[in-house]
Amino acid sequence: MKVANFLVALAVLALASSFATAYDPSPLQDFCVATNASKSAVFLNGKFCKDPTRVTADDFFFSGLNVAGDTSNQLGVHINIIDADVIPGLNTNGITLVRIDYAANGGLNPPHNHPRAAEILTVLKGTVYAGFVTSNPDHRLFAKVLKPGDVFLFPFGLIHFQLNIGKTPAVALAALTSQNPGVNTIANAVFGSDPPINPNVLTKAFHLDKDLVSKLQKEQWVDPSESDSYN
User: Fold this and answer.
1) Is 78 labelled as part of a ligand binding site?
2) What is the CATH classification number for the domain harbouring 101?
3) What is this structure's pTM?
4) According to the annotation, is 109 in a ligand binding site?
């Protein structure tokens, strides 16, 4: 009886472990190239799979990641997202690639988190101050000044940021561990929600004057994840 109970407990732990590690569904075939044509296609992971006999090398290809993005916005940042909508062959592979351009003297990818992914950042050009903050109760800051060739990891779901502290534009390449990592920009969510959060909540939570909270809620908050279409 004790052996049986042990085996049941072991099975439950194994099942829980599989749920905890499988954030994106694992593919059950070589590839599932995304397509909008539903005729004679298989629906998988939110997208239709292209007929494998019609798949070409172009379904796994993208050109243009070397093109600099326009950083003439409030934050001085441009984010070019390469996902399954851009490279259809990425579908079911649990990967998103991002090019980030930062304006000189303060281009900022503001504090945000990805609810479904970890992120690894590689600086290609410039000098970037990057970091993340741990969850309750410690709120420890881990941050580094990164130069070309430096790599920094933002753990799964934690709030993180990047700031160009150099006098020239900066460029970084990021890879995220999900086909659909999601992004939640903290300031936008808190002060730019629709409809607005009751100012009394934010006044007390952030120790701010109520007039300042009302002013912040009237600001136009830039969403860096929507900076231009894909190049």
Assistant:
1) no
2) 2.60.120.10
3) 0.83
4) yes
